[in-house]
Amino acid sequence: MNAEGKLSFPPGAFRRAVSARAGTIPSETRVSPRLIGGDLPAGRQARHKGDKMKKKVKYVLLGLLIVFITTLLIVYNFKHIDKTEINLSQQTAVDQPADDEKAIKTPKINPKDNNSHVILGEDYINKAKYSEAEKELRIALKADPDNSWVLKVIGNLYFRQKKYDEAERYYIKALKSDKIKINKAWIYHDWALLYLAINNKKKAFDSEKIALSYLPEDKVIKDEYDRIKSLCGK
Fold first, then answer.
1. 58 vs 134, which has greater pLDDT?
2. Whether pTM exceeds 0.90
3. In this structure, are residues 151 and 141 in contact, taking their beta carbons and an 8 Å threshold?
4. Going by CATH, does the domain composed of 110-178 fall within 3.40.30.10?
5. Phi and psi angles of residue 138, each rounded to the nearest 5 degrees, phi first
6. Among 63, 78, 165, 230, which is 20 to 30 Å from 221 by CA?
């Protein structure tokens, strides 16, 4: 009761009393189920889980996108580097004159290694330095007179100088001194080229056919065999 003798209620008391009678709780007195240790309603729980799942999916997709972009950049950079190296090597080969001795390096030889003299002799043949080639090949032949490789290369030396009889003589020597099929195949192959040079197509075909029988899967010999076969009209 107040000073005037009338009944009075604390602020909000009447509304709380009415709400209690109606079975409801005023909004200012409601407590979240979370604060009192309860669980969220099923609908809100589902929405909450859905939001968390969306976030996870979003982050996973973002990560995959970053990985994909990074991979593309790496692949592009490698391809760019490869193309640059190829272009540089091609440009160098074009820029260097074919008859420039500096453009083709002469291989270094070991005087104690007989094979080095043969390699150097072949190099001189390719450069048309026939006297230097013969000098190196004679050293190799003296050290190993029955070496079929040396004999074949000497045959090639005479072949390049159009001394066909001498070339054929050394090819025959090379064949007699070698039992290995692969070596025989290349001797017959070079012999076939000699026969083509003197316009003996039949013997050229026969020689290349023998070479092919020793090395049936070699592309160089197969292509040359087909070429000579077409020249013979077969």
1. 134
2. no
3. yes
4. no
5. -70, -35
6. 165
